[in-house]
Design goal:
Blueprint lengths: L16 H11 L1 H17 L1 H23 L6 H21 L5 H20 L6 H25 L5 H28 L5
Helix pairs in contact: 1-6, 2-3, 2-4, 2-5, 2-6, 2-7, 3-5, 3-6, 4-5, 4-7
Length: 190
């Protein structure tokens, strides 16, 4: 009657695996929130950086999902700490409005893509349906990133840029909260 561990599963919409992947991305704030924050950061860095990250993030997401489907496993503690660190890092980059070279920004996008793609399909068996689910997630990442980055590219007014940066500070605070939660209560799958 009292289970020791609760395990979640991929969202099933009944419309097919591609839509399941789209739905999973949209209903998982641990996936969608850092993608939007990274897109805002890329948009503040300019069109060239935004285009580079737009290519790197979905491809890394697909690679991370394929690694998970191949049977590689990471303990839940590692995934929860990595998610907290990703929230802290991306939120901190956006809040500080750090001027990074495009290659370093792409490395951050690749890290996020590998982590979240892996976490989304960790523990699932390889199948054609899961490949289509991963394709739906990758398409969602691409579209959401492109739309969010396009919102910040034209920003010139200082108060608008500050408003975007405040969102980054909230994400960093959420990462700190997740890290504290993992420290205090142990590993949770985020």
């Amino acid at each position: 009657m009292i289970p020791a561990v609760a395990q979640a599963h991929l969202v099933v919409t009944g419309m097919g695996p591609i839509y399941d992947g789209i739905d999973h991305f949209g209903l998982s704030p641990e996936d969608s929130v850092p993608v939007v924050a990274l897109a805002f950061f890329a948009g503040l860095r300019g069109a060239a950086t935004a285009r580079l990250l737009l290519a790197a993030l979905p491809l890394a997401w697909l690679a991370g999902g394929l690694i998970a489907l191949s049977g590689v496993a990471i303990p839940a503690a590692g995934l929860s700490v990595a998610t907290a660190v990703a929230f802290l890092a991306i939120g901190g980059l956006l809040a500080a409005n750090v001027r990074l070279p495009p290659a370093v920004s792409a490395a951050a996008a690749i890290g996020l893509g590998l982590l979240r793609g892996f976490a989304d399909l960790s523990g699932t068996a390889f199948s054609g349906g899961h490949l289509l689910t991963l394709a739906g997630m990758g398409a969602s990442v691409f579209v959401v990133f492109a739309l969010a980055a396009s919102l910040t590219l034209p920003l010139k007014r200082f108060w608008m840029i500050i408003a975007i940066r405040v969102g980054g500070s909230w994400l960093a605070a959420l990462g700190l909260l997740l890290a504290g939660w993992a420290w205090r209560y142990g590993a949770r799958a985020f």
